[in-house]
Amino acid sequence: MSVPGLITASVLFVAGLVGTFLPVLPGAILIFAGALLYGFIVDFQGGLDLMFYLGQGAAVLIIFLIDYTAGIWGARKFGGSPAAVIGCIAGLILGLFTLGPFGIIIGPFIGAFAGEYLNRQNVQAAVRAAMGTAIGIVGGTALKLAIEIVMIVWFFMVVF
Fold first, then answer.
1. Averaged over 57-61, what is the pLDDT?
2. d(Cα 156, Cα 137) in Å, to the nearest integer?
3. Spatial separation of the C-alpha atoms in residues 69 and 61, rounded to whole Å
4. According to the 3-state scheme, what is the secondary structure of 22-79?
5. Largest CA distance in the chain
6. What does pLDDT average to over the chain?
7. Residue spans per domain, the chain
8. Which residue did the predictor score with more confidence, 117 or 1?
9. Measured between alpha carbons, how far is 110 from 86 in angstroms, rounded to an integer?
C-alpha cells in the first residue's frame, strides 16, 4: 500500500465524482486514471490485476453509453418522435460547442423540443419530449454516479 498513491488516486476519484455533475471534467476517465496511476505506483501488486482493470474499463464504457443515450431514451419514453431524438442529438452537439459544458444539459432539451415541435407542430408534445430528455439526463447522471461509486468502492476493497 502506498500512502502517496492513495492520496493521488483519491484526489482523482473526487475530481471524477465532481465531473459527473460538471461536464467539463471526464468523470469516469478520472476515476479509471486514479486506479491506473495507483497501479503503476505499486507495480500492480495486491489484487490490481488485469481482471480488475478490464472491469473498470467496462464500467467506463457503460458510463459513456449511458451518457450518450440517456437523453435519447427519455425523449422516446415520453412519446418523442424520431425528430425529437435527432433534435436531442443535434442539441447535444450544438450545445456543447455554443454553450460550453452546460450545453450538454441544455442543448439536448432544446433540441428535443425543437425537433418534436417542427415535426408535429404541437407545443404539448414538444414539451413532453423535452421533459423526457431532461428526465433521461438526470436519471442517467444518477446511474453514472452509482457506477462510479462502485468503481471507487471496488478499488478500495482490492487495495485494503
1. 97
2. 29
3. 12
4. CCCCCHHHHHHHHHHHHHHHCCCCCCCCHHHHHHHHHHHHHHHHHHHHHHHHHHHHCC
5. 62
6. 91
7. 3-159
8. 117
9. 11
